[in-house]
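Tutorial, part two.
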Amino acid sequence: MADRVVIAGDGLSAAINPLGAELSSLKDAAGRELMTDADPAFWTGRAPLLFPVVGKPAGETIRVDGGPYTMKQHGFARRMMFAVAEQAADRATFVLTDTPETRACYPFAFRLEVTFGIVGATLSVDVSIANPGDAPLPASFGFHPAFAWPLPGGGAKEAHRIIFSADEPEPLRKIDANGQIAPEPRPSPLDGRTLHLRDDLFADDALIWDRLHSDRVTYQGATGPRLEIAFSDTPMLGIWTKPGAHFICIEPWHGIADPAGFTGDFRDKPGVFEVAPGAAKRIAMRVTLLAES
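Running the prediction step on this input gives:
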């Protein structure tokens, strides 16, 4: 197993696994773990990076310029070893580039660079998706961090809530039995701007906002630490857990699972962006530890 890269600042410390460039631990100044316990009875993930797809392609296949390519749910980056390109006390950069293995399922040159940094009580995750090729690069990208539920010192699970920064009047999307986006909408469970967390919300998989107005949410319990997750570059948001587990995933996405019945080109899939030759797409997330409530 690859050694984790540890970075720290005045208010937070983090550990990142080069396998998937996955944030594996986030602790406050008192050493309290703010992320999942990764109980294998539920889910061993911690914060996978979703690239070049978000969600599940229909039949685990994408179609690119007329050709079919096998593509697993959430893409391949989370299962690949990243190179550690830079490492300092409070900052580290990880890089993944295309290989014959990736080109067999995703026929493009790419450079995926992820920089984790800590300043004060904020963890920044800055992603660059660069296109060194000579044709437009289609891709999706998503964050998938799993935070502790309950938070340390946050009280009972049912006292936890997620507060959106803007009104969210739109209905949600839901996942069908095949892992695709069902055509019928799902009524919003929000109370104003607040999502009161309970296990039964996730009996039918994730809550998905595909017409998101907020650029940040605050996650908190009745007492204890509060986390602000900011994501101004991603137009969609998933929130997910497995009932009974001790985590809640707050997932800023630029992409989504295939709509039910979708058979089009990957470039035309909802949420897919294109990066011009020689250019790069930048997507960031910020996790800030706020004053205790």
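The two ends are 38 Å apart (CA to CA). In part three we will examine how such features are distributed along the chain.
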